[in-house]
Write a structure and sequence with these properties.
The complex is a heterotrimer of chains A (333), B (311) and C (297). Helix content of chain A is 33%, strand content 24%. Chain A is an alpha/beta fold and 333 residues long. The chains are: A alpha/beta (333), B mainly alpha (311), C mainly alpha (297). Chains B and C meet through helix 1, helix 6, helix 7, helix 8 and helix 9 of B and helix 5, helix 6, helix 10 and helix 12 of C.
């Protein structure tokens, strides 16, 4: 597939949390790239570091967390080296972000219109009237009926789905090049979820912006993403385009994740749904060697001693494993 | 609300009647004839049962006749209360305003700079204020500034004989008398406002919408003052409504320590001698304020929090 | 804003730790609260054991030369107007003040928990009735009635004060408990318990109440401090603990008049009370931080 130029290049990002009980290496050497107009799905279970990674990109990591290493090259410049004021100009204007909880992500004491308008007024040199017009246009664009009326309403007067649309409108108000969606649909009903995803795809087609789509739900990734990065305990363990990942998962973890998604076929064969054994390790007590080894059915001595590197096993498909899986999966998404 | 009123009136009247016969003491005075005491008793209705007295009193209250004091030479209750309230209000409102205006900003600043020296220092000050027995503190201040140093007066509301002086002189004189009692009065509330403001702000800055505001690229000042502060002030403002009743009643001890002829002292004196016309009006006044204070708090809540308005 | 520290702890699924163990752990980190706990234990020990160790009896009157003596080796805190040793009286008075503080809080808690639990659990008419009653009690101005009640109820014992303070102090706890019960009774384990036939009473006391203890404990700790001051205020006005039984409150009352010539009489009970209440406040605050699942470093 033709990929545009590189928009965001995260190189060996390390974000650690220095707590009273020890150091948590939430992001421990993550690297991935997003090209212009591309949708990258960042997948992983809770605690794998994907949210921390997105906050790191936005430079919103707060004590006791700190970015301790790596680079975040956005449009050619390293965000890690930016001053807070420079970063503030980028946030909301060139990178937009939407979060998981629409119920609490909007300020309850200000109207919806006010909150969108303020994003526009802060980054663009326009008059209040123009900002208001633009806001109403945005509300219409994200599929909110009667935008003029909704403009003056408060967040509690809107449903969850509508609030998330408002969040999207807010994030897109300044035509960002990159949209980070951090589990934006997890808290919504399935039908609303589908609508929001449609909306996001639609907007992406229209504006050509890139999306960093963070989720734990593989089905969504299959629907939305062009490329996929699978994260585990702060590192990327597999990376490639969506078709390769789903058809030929190489990392035992990815393979396990895909196998545990029920499909029509599993029902027919009446085999029990395979699940990955064990649990995500305690970050204060990471296993030595490859972090996945206690749960991996293919683990060897080497896996317990050494941490594998990310290796390009096929063109465009990287894996962090000494014994990548070599089975073709039936596409079941 | 009306049943609440009646309930409160009933209970207070009843409890008050437990103090007993207000004229008992008079019997001990050998120069007063028992027959005269009987006459007084009859005149005030103390020879009738409690509930009859209550109805008679209630009726006269409703019809606007608030009665006269049994002991203060037949002075109308309204006059007595009018004088006392003037003083109490002066001190209490000053204390409320001062403590609010000083404590809330400090509390908010503490929240924004948690775990710094400033925070620990003012937390200590707050606890200091809340742990200090007011009468003891007032006493100590009186001794230090009034007796030892002689800078400030030790009680009362104005220098005797100054009534004829020009307005400004009188004003300054009364201000001098206000300093110590107001400090003592505001001590506790300063402490608790500081803590409330701090914890409210702390809670708000952890909220998701603050994160959203930052993610939009808003300047930190806007994030704090527009988004966070507005929400943090909501519970504080409603608390303001709830401290209204305290304006009348909160100063009893301080008034006693500093010999201020205010509502607190009046109420206690009236109650202890079962001067029920005065006592009841004082108590009802206070209960009314409590109930109104609650109402105002609820109203204020609806005004500042749009979520409440529509339900 | 930041990745909440809670997300970090979510991942810390290591061993199974009970809620109270975690609370204890967090409390231990709060240095001032721990210091307060130590101070309080010392104070309590001193007040309980102290009078036994003192060479003076608490009511022993001294000879005329011994009256109003400033602090010396013989009397570390001086003597009062009747020649009694101040230190001994202070410790003994501490017993009384602490006793009043703890028992009034305890009694208020009992009333408050019963009212709040039944109101919150059953809801409906019982709730409305109980809450109306609570509202009335709330609307009655406390200080004046406190004074009247203590003047009117016969007897001058410590228990009268405890009762009087408790009568006016249970309402806040009732509201807290009711609030907790209103939300906790919606939990599934309550439904489950009912489904297997557990009686309502058992559900209230064995199942829901233990889970609502956290705010009650905080309120109680802070309440002891507050009630010690209440008692002192009452004694100061002449309605609390009556002499010759010392309490920190009436010691202050006695000392007023002698302030100019015997300042030590005013400083010792005041400072003792201040430190004790301060310690309760810090401890209560520390407990509140430790028990709140959201607020911590």
């Amino acid at each position: 597939m033709e990929r545009g130029e590189v928009l965001l290049d995260v190189r060996d990002l390390k974000t650690y949390f220095f707590t009273d009980d020890g150091v948590v290496k939430a992001v421990d050497g993550m690297s991935f790239t997003i090209h212009k107009g591309e949708v990258l799905g960042l997948v992983g279970e809770s605690g794998c570091g994907k949210s921390v990674a997105s906050m790191s990109i936005m430079q919103l990591v707060d004590v006791p967390g700190k970015i301790v290493g790596g680079e975040i090259i956005f449009k050619g410049e390293d965000l890690v080296k930016k001053t807070p004021e420079q970063m503030r100009k980028i946030r909301g204007a060139e990178i937009g972000m939407i979060f998981q909880e629409p119920m609490t992500s909007l300020n309850p004491v200000y109207t919806v219109g006010d909150q969108i308008m303020e994003a526009i007024l802060v980054h663009q040199d326009v008059s209040e009237e123009e900002a208001k017009k633009k806001t109403i246009e945005l509300l219409r664009l994200v599929g909110i009926p009667e935008p003029e009326r909704r403009f003056n309403q408060y967040p509690h007067e809107l449903s969850g789905g509508m609030r998330q649309r408002v969040m999207i409108a807010m994030a897109m108000s300044c035509n960002p090049d990159l949209l980070i969606s951090d589990e934006a649909t997890t808290a919504l009903d399935v039908t609303i979820q589908a609508q929001i995803l449609e909306l996001m795809k639609d907007l992406q087609r229209k504006t050509g912006m890139a999306i960093l789509f963070i989720t734990h739900d593989l089905a969504l990734v299959a629907e939305m993403a062009n490329s996929v990065a699978v994260a585990y305990t702060g590192k990327i363990v597999e990376y490639g385009d969506v078709y390769s990942i789903f058809k030929r998962p190489r990392h035992p973890y990815t393979y396990g994740l895909l196998s545990s998604v029920p499909s029509l076929k599993t029902e027919k064969t009446k085999t029990p749904l395979p699940a990955i054994e064990g649990m995500v390790p305690n970050p204060y007590r990471m296993p030595s060697g490859c972090h996945f080894n206690p749960r991996c059915p293919f683990a060897t001595e080497r896996c317990r001693k050494e941490m594998p590197e990310l290796v390009e096993i096929e063109p465009g498909h990287l894996v962090r494993c000494f014994h990548p899986v070599a089975v073709e999966k039936e596409a079941n998404a | 609300m009306i049943p609440l009123f009646i309930g409160v009136a009933l209970v207070t009247f009843f409890v008050l009647s437990l103090v007993g016969d207000p004229f008992k003491e008079m019997l001990l005075n050998p120069r007063i004839k028992p027959a005269d005491v009987e006459r007084l008793r009859h005149a005030w209705g103390f020879d009738r049962p409690v509930y009859i007295r209550f109805f008679k009193w209630f009726w006269s209250m409703i019809t606007g006749n608030w009665g006269v004091s049994i002991f203060a030479g037949g002075k109308p209750v309204t006059e007595l209360i009018g004088i006392a309230i003037k003083y109490t209000l002066r001190f209490s409102i000053a204390a409320l305003v001062i403590s609010f205006v000083i404590a809330v900003p400090i509390g908010i600043y503490s929240a924004l700079h948690q775990y710094t020296f400033f925070d620990y220092f003012f937390t200590f000050i707050a606890f200091f204020g809340m742990s200090m027995p007011t009468f003891w503190f007032g006493f100590i201040l009186m001794m230090i500034f009034g007796v030892r140093l002689g800078w400030l007066p030790i009680g009362g509301v104005m220098t005797p004989g100054i009534e004829t002086a020009p307005f400004l002189v009188r004003l300054l004189d009364q201000a001098k008398y206000m300093i110590l009692p107001v400090i003592v009065l505001s001590l506790f509330s300063m402490g608790s406002w500081m803590r409330y403001a701090r914890s409210s702000m702390l809670e708000v800055i952890k909220q998701d919408y603050v994160r959203t505001a930052r993610a939009k690229g808003l300047p930190e000042r806007t994030v704090i003052f527009k988004h966070a502060l507005r929400n943090a002030l909501i519970p504080i403002v409603t608390l303001l409504g709830l401290s209204l009743p305290g304006i009348i009643s909160g100063a009893t001890i301080t008034e006693t320590v500093f010999s201020i002829p205010g509502m607190g002292r009046l109420t206690v004196q009236a109650m202890l001698s079962n001067d029920y016309p005065v006592a009841m009006v004082c108590l009802i006044l206070e209960s009314t304020l409590l109930i109104i204070g609650n109402l105002i708090a609820d109203l204020l809540y609806a005004v500042v929090d749009p979520r409440i308005r529509y339900s | 804003m930041a990745v909440e520290a809670t997300k970090v702890e979510e991942v810390l699924t290591g061993r199974v730790e009970t809620y109270w163990y975690l609370v204890g752990k967090r409390l231990r980190k709060h240095k001032l609260a721990m210091l307060s706990l130590v101070v309080l234990i010392l104070i309590i020990l001193a007040c309980v054991i102290g009078p036994y160790l003192s060479p003076y009896h608490v009511a022993a009157l001294g000879s005329t030369e011994e009256v109003m003596q400033p602090p010396s080796l013989k009397h570390p805190l001086g003597t009062d107007e009747l020649g009694r040793d101040v230190l001994t009286r202070l410790l003994y008075g501490g017993r009384i003040s602490l006793l009043v503080g703890f028992s009034s809080v305890f009694s208020a808690l009992i009333i408050g928990i019963i009212v709040g639990a039944y109101a919150g659990y059953y809801g409906g008419i019982l709730d409305t009735l109980l809450m109306r009653f609570t509202d009335i009690m709330f609307s009655i101005p406390v200080m004046p009635l406190l004074i009247v009640l203590s003047a009117v109820i016969p007897g001058s014992g410590v228990w009268k004060i405890v009762l009087v303070i408790a009568i006016f102090g249970w309402m806040t706890d009732a509201r807290i408990v009711r609030g907790m019960f209103l939300s906790l009774r919606e939990n599934e384990y309550v439904e489950a318990a009912r489904a297997i036939g557990v009686s309502n009473n058992r559900i209230i006391w064995r199942h829901i109440l233990p889970n609502s203890l956290a705010p009650i404990i905080v309120s109680a700790t802070l309440g002891v401090g507050g009630n010690i001051i209440y008692e002192a205020a009452l004694s100061y006005l002449g309605f609390g603990v009556m002499p010759p039984t010392p309490s920190w409150g009436n010691m202050l009352q006695n000392a007023q008049y002698a302030m100019a010539i015997a300042p030590w009489l005013v400083w010792s009970p005041g400072i003792a009370m201040f430190i004790t209440v301060l310690a309760f406040n810090y401890l209560g605050d520390g407990l509140r931080d430790a028990m709140d699942p959201r607020l911590y470093r």
